[in-house]
Amino acid sequence: MRLSELVIGIPLLICVPPQTSPIKALPNGVLSKLTVLEREYCEDQFGDKFKKGCDRKFAANLKWQEVAITPTGESAILVENQNLGFCGSAGCALYLFVQKADTSYVQVLGTQGDIGTLKRFKVLEEITKEHFNVQVTWSDGKTHSIYRWNGSRYITPN
Predict the structure, then answer these.
(1) What phi and psi, each to the nearest 5 degrees, are found at residue 33?
(2) What are the DSSP calls for 68-121, one per residue?
C-alpha cells in the first residue's frame, strides 16, 4: 500500500459512519397511492411540462415510519409529505396507510389525512375496535386530535 492511498483512505473511513441496517424505501404500493399528489406537485412546480426527475424529487421529500396500530402487531405506514405546497405553519400533510388483504394500500387517517409531523403523531394505549387510538398534536404543542378506529379507518369523534 502506498502512503497516498493510506492518507486518502483514512478520512473516508472517519467521515462515513457505518450503517447498522439498510435504509428501507417507502413501499411502492404506498407511493402509487400518492401519484395524484405527485402529479399535482410537478404541475405546480413545472407547469404542463413535467421536469425530468420530478417524481424522484417528490418521493425524496416523503418522510415515513412504520407504526404498530393493533395489539397483535398489525402495522401501518405513516407518511409526512414535506414537498413544497404541502406544508404550512401547522405542519405538513400526514397520511396513514394500511395494507389490505390483496396487498394494496389504503389511506385511513380521516378521509384525506391530516396536518402535522411524524414527531407529533402518537399511538395511544387506548383501544377502539381492536386498534390503538392515535393522536396528532397541533403545532401549538397543546391541542390535539384523537382518532379512533371505526372498523375501516381512523376518525375523530364529533
Answers:
(1) -70, -15
(2) E-STT--EEEEEEE-STTSEETTEEEEEEEEE-TTS-EEE-BTTT-EEE-GGGE
Sign (positive or negative) of CA dihedral 29, 30, 32, 33: positive
Domain count, the chain: 1
**Domain contains 67:** yes
d(C-alpha 154, C-alpha 110), whole Å: 6
| Domain boundaries, position 113 | 27-155
**Does the residue 128 lie in any domain?**
yes
Question: Rounded CA gap, 148 and 150, in Å?
Answer: 6
- Tens of pLDDT along 87-124? 998 899 999 999 999 999 999 999 999 999 999 999 99
Whether residue 42 lies inside any domain: the answer is yes
Q: Return the pLDDT at 74.
A: 96
The verdict on residue 72 lying in a domain is yes
Rounded-to-integer distance, Cα 84 and Cα 96, Å: 20
**Lookup result for grid cell 396536518:** 115
3-state secondary structure of 147: strand
55 burial (CB, 10 Å; 0-12 / 13-18 / 19+) is: middle
Q: Which cell is 46 given?
A: 413545472
